[in-house]
Specification:
It is built from one helix and 13 strands; from the N terminus they run αβββββββββββββ. With 221 residues, it is of the alpha+beta class. The protein folds into two domains: 52 residues; 164 residues, no CATH class. Strands 8-7-6-10-2-1-13 form a seven-stranded antiparallel sheet, with no helix packed on it. A four-stranded antiparallel sheet has the order 5-4-11-12, with no helix packed on it. A two-stranded antiparallel ribbon has the order 3-9. β6 and β7 form a beta hairpin.
Length: 221
């Protein structure tokens, strides 16, 4: 009796092709997953490097000014330099956030722009209360603030405005916190205050200082 259940060459070819197709699809899926994982790992690595190199810091000493009567001197102004380390990412002045906290823990975000009524909050001619900060424009060597992203000098005859708001790596810019616009900072001699500088990208820089008892102004170490 003739048997016809042998494994023909055509059937073998079909099975082989099926195995090859399945293996190809599986390989494609595995390679795609590998490429995706590699891309994500690369993105995370680059983001970590950017975060690590985007820091700002307070460069040098902090100069403090006091205001008020001889028996009620309060911290009124703080002047210091904010820099970007060598090899770091350039930072925009417009994106800096400065915070101030007194010994009671009152946290205040400083302002570097005009208010909703287009008044400069540090202008003593306005009735707008609030804490603010200004920066030294290196192009004109004048204290300035921002108005809709543009540099505005406090004195009208200070020259042409700068064409860049960027702090380059290895460079720094002078900043002054004005604390007495809202009636004083409530920080007196013998008390502690905290400054925090936060760039748009990168870790914030935090520093705490104490005023010596009987302090009347000067550099804080």
């Amino acid at each position: 009796m003739k048997k016809d259940n042998a494994f023909t060459g055509l059937e073998a070819a079909i099975v082989l092709i099926a195995f090859v197709v399945v293996a190809a699809v599986f390989s494609y899926v595995m390679l795609g997953a590998g490429f995706f994982a590699t891309q994500k790992a690369q993105e995370v690595t680059y983001a970590g490097i950017k975060m690590a190199t985007s820091n700002t810091f307070i460069n040098g000493n902090i100069h403090a000014m006091m205001n008020g009567g001889s028996d009620k001197l309060q911290l009124s102004n703080l002047t210091f330099s904010v820099g970007v380390p060598e090899g770091g990412q350039a930072q925009s002045i417009a994106n800096l956030v400065l915070l101030f906290a007194n010994e009671r823990g009152d946290l205040i975000e400083m302002v570097n722009t005009v208010d909703v009524n287009n008044n400069w909050v540090c202008d003593t001619g306005t009735a707008v209360p609030g804490y603010c900060w200004i920066f030294k424009d290196k192009a004109t060597n004048s204290w300035s603030y921002l108005d809709d992203g543009e540099i505005k000098a406090i004195s009208a005859d200070s020259g042409d405005p700068a064409n860049s708001l960027t702090i380059e790596p290895g460079k720094s810019i002078s900043i002054r916190m004005i604390l007495d616009k809202a009636g004083g900072s409530s920080v007196v001699g013998g008390q502690t205050f905290t400054i925090e500088v936060k760039p748009r990208v990168g870790a914030p820089y935090l520093v705490s200082k104490s005023l010596p008892t009987g302090f009347t102004g000067g550099f804080l170490t």
